[in-house]
Amino acid sequence: MITDTLSPKEALSKYFGFSQFKGEQEEIIESILGGNHTFVIMPTGGGKSLCYQLPALMKSGTAIVVSPLIALMKNQVDAIRGVSENDGVAHFLNSSLNKADVQMVMSDVKKGVTKLLYMAPESLTKQEYIDFLREADISFFAIDEAHCISEWGHDFRPEYRRLRNIIEEIKYAPIIALTATATDKVQQDIMKNLGMTNANIFKASFNRPNLYYEVRPKKDVAKEIIKFVHSKSGKSGIVYCLSRKKVEEIAEALKVNGIKALPYHAGMEAATRSNHQDAFLNEEVDVIVATIAFGMGIDKPDVRFVIHHDIPKSIESYYQETGRAGRDGGEGHCLAFYSYKDIEKLEKFLQGKHVSEMEIGRQLLQEIVSYAEASMCRRKFILHYFGEFFDADKCDEMCDNCRFPKEKFEGKESVTKVLQTVMESKQRHKARHLINILTGTETSEVKTYKDDELECFGIGQEEDDAYWNAVIRQATIQNLLKKDIETYGTLQLTEAGEKFLAKPRSITLFKENDYTDVDDANEGGGGGKAAADEMLYKMLDGLKKQEASRKNLPAHVIFQDTSLQEMAYQYPTTIEELTRITGVGHGKAKKFGQPFIDLIAKYVDENDIEKPKDLVVKSVVNKSGLKVHIIKNIDRKLPLDDIADAKGKELEDVIVEIEAIVGSGTKINIDYYINDILDEDDQADIYEYFMESESDDLQEAYDEFDGDFTEEQLRLMRIKFMSEVAN
After folding, report:
1. What's the pTM?
2. Which end of the chain is more exposed for a tag (fewer CB within 10 A), N or C?
3. Residues whose CB is less than 8 angstroms from the CB of residue 71 and which lie 6 or more positions away in sequence, other chains included
4. In terms of residue numbers, what domain contains 590?
5. Using CA atoms in the order 564, 566, 571, 575, what is the torsion angle rounded to 10 degrees?
6. Does one domain contain both 232 and 348?
7. What is the mean pLDDT of residues 484-488?
């Protein structure tokens, strides 16, 4: 029953202060007010939440909102409380509440004060809550992030599959299911599972015209990300990584390079995660580096860029994550880094899963590969995936492929060969098998089907696999081929494809992007040797020797050769720029840096050199968490063996880490440990050796002392020496 006699538009003004609905919001709200099952597919930023919040405020009783994330619930509840005089208007019921909190929530629901009750699906399965809700006045059930129901969705959660049974156990009430991403397959799956096949369906356009889509090869990726973020100085952005370790590394690299950034992942304490999220929302930091745990329902309208350090595992994931950019209609740059190595890693994660789950996962991966490697309009590709036609001419150069078009070629003959192969092999194979037929590759599967006896076998052997992949992709987007979802991607001819095969016509295809030039190993930035200015390097090396002589120090103490190589590539001319060079901390830069930046500045001026706009990514000590652990415990004078054991590491690992810490310019004092393994005279002998030696090579030191000291003792003394003299 509707208790609020206002019209939806009047209620919108009363509760939210808006005068106009967006898109189909008004029709959706009227559908719910009319007691109908309602299915809403609306892109991120389209205003999904309002579609159930407003009717909940207008109707009698309490709307139960099923939501997957506790953080999301808190944000939504806070927002609704902001439009009401009574905080009881909205509550959440989840594992974060104590018994007193739960009793207060139940009391407000019983009194009819609460209009929206947010619950996780896991909470909804608890018998005590089911019994409680049976007695409550429920206006409707809202299933947010409904794609979680479908195995074909990008964030499948088994507990979502139980919702229909639980809802029926509680009592009948209309259901509104909402999602930001749903292919036809996912849509049917959701409605069938929730028992709402008679629902009113509202599907908004998936086109986000303000988003610019770009894919780059995954080469020097940390350096590229830092360069990109510097170009968006002061703007908010999200960097997504697949692993927690990579999140920590990239966040640290951004911070070291002068960018206000914080990490966010499920391995962090809840309070820390919450603080980092709030810092981002309150604009205390510009960039959040996160796993996909971050972002669901985060209402920040002015995110200006979303970067994918690793390609996601489905188009749905990619679409939803990029959809967090430009929600206010302003600038939104979506940059993804692609390497097929990432796909291979994701495929490994599928091993050991149920056959159908593995097949679904593989097909979703192949779709994202197609997107990344495609040379056609990226917007057209995405919208085609969601069943929406888009004219690429209307992209307005808002993707890299339209802004920088690839070479075109006549595809009539190639498309005909592909369609002929599909037809002759009885329309029962996926792309991989068809390519083997085209190229004349005699795999065991080809022989099993006797496809090596077909007339079309080998008709495309003059081209490679990548070429035929491109032709198949583009023929599919141009609606000449279709993928049968039920058989995990079997290719079949469409009606248009049959007409084309009967009467081939001219068709334009694009040469595909080449992403073979990737270099995942070089993510730390660093390096730059190959591109170093050799003349400048020789001058810097000479200066290093002069400074060493003047200060009566070994040359290797001043700067390492790798640091000089980077200086000769990046041309740092200020102390701040110098600290971004690998192996140069603030202490070392101030202690030894001035003559070097003076020389570089003079060289740059005299030779009219244009400095690279981006400084090389300053190397970050491996595993920043381990670095902090080591420094803290050395300050507490804990034995190095105990520091290693506490982290499940070998002593060797801790020593390597300490060498890296000192090498990056940080002072560290391990005298307490060295004093237990070497007496004063031995320490003095080794210290004097490193002071007088032209090299800090350990083997040379070991030979010099005829094996009187172990390698470990020499390494620890070298750490002491470098910390005291070089930093």
Report:
1. 0.62
2. N
3. 273, 274, 277, 296, 297
4. 526-606
5. -70
6. yes
7. 67
